Amino acid sequence: MDRMRILVAVAPGQAAWAVDAIRRGGGEPVGLGENPSGLVWTAAGAVEELRDVLRAHPGISWVQLPMAGTERVAEAGVLDRRRRWTSAKGAYAEPVAEHALALLLAGLRHLPERARARCWGQPAGQTLFGQRVTVVGGGGITIALLRLLEPFRARVTVVRRRAEPVAGAARTVTASHLGAALAGARAVVLTAALTPQTRGMIGQAELGVMDQQAWLVNVARGALVDTAALVGALRSNQIGGAALDVTDPEPLPAGHPLWDLPNCLITPHTADTEQMTEPLLAARITENVQRLAANQELEGLVDPDLGY
Question: Could you give the residue numbers annotated as active site?
Fold first, then answer.
């Protein structure tokens, strides 16, 4: 079968690792002025610049985005059906799931409190083995996390848009059953995409039905959680604690109440650092260039209507 010649530009600016990834996939890296059919975009926050590039180069039919969550591009109205869009969703799943598990264990074992302690204190801690865990989201991070939770014999409920079974989960329910899925869980892990439907999905009512010993872990997007409601729940010990790799606002400003709460652990969006993600994104680029040339379905396709 003849393979198409795929011309792919990298912007904004050059990134040698992305150029190499295109070549490994059999594509030809070119400048924007050389009529590329593909674009590898390397700056997650430069949404308006991306809009300008696409307006100036309407022949681009495929765009590879560098982030897993594409809400910024969706909210800006840049996503369209004139071209195919792929994101990094699923590509970063393993390191993010690893971080979620680390945060969860740290919370259950009271490590935030012990890390700040200056005296022996009272023995405390919970085990994850055999516990009920609710994971909100059904993408690649959830799949990777379910594999990591297997040795703990955790009884996992997955909350997602559709109720189809997920391998490794005891049950799968839709978001309409979120409250019931939260009740009684020792841990709640958020991995869902941020959309108008999921923004603020964990608010006062949802925190109110969670177990008093439960830990909330967020490795997705900060705006999934109502921050003011979370502060209130943590201050009153309504839940056991929160372990957050993402916050709303982000970065979380100095002096914010969350910093001083002993039952809150915060990491600065480091579940997937650039050092971790660059080779993973490069592999996604290589795979998609190969698939383009073979006229196959692309990895990490974004649905412009859903926004992810």
Answer: 221, 250, 269
The span from the CA of 188 to the CA of 82, in Å, is: 38
Q: Please, what's the b/e burial string for 52-79 (b: 16 or more CB within 10 A of its CB; e: otherwise)?
A: ebbeebeebebbbbbbbbbbbbbeeebb
Closest CA to 232 of 252, 253, 202, 254: 202
Helix axes 274-293, 16-24, angle to 10 degrees: 30
**Which uninterrupted H or E stretch holds 265?**
strand 264-266
CB atoms inside a 10 Å sphere around CB 295: 9
Task: Return the structure tokens found at 203.
Answer: 């608010």
pTM of the model: 0.93
pLDDT of the chain along its 308 residues, tens only? 345 789 999 999 889 999 999 999 999 999 999 999 999 999 999 999 999 999 999 999 999 999 999 999 999 999 999 999 999 999 999 999 999 999 999 999 999 888 888 999 988 999 999 999 999 999 999 999 999 999 999 999 999 999 999 999 999 999 999 999 999 999 999 999 999 999 999 999 999 999 999 999 999 999 999 999 999 999 999 999 999 999 999 999 999 999 999 999 999 999 999 999 999 999 999 999 999 999 999 999 999 999 99
**DSSP strand pairing (84-86 vs 62-64):** parallel
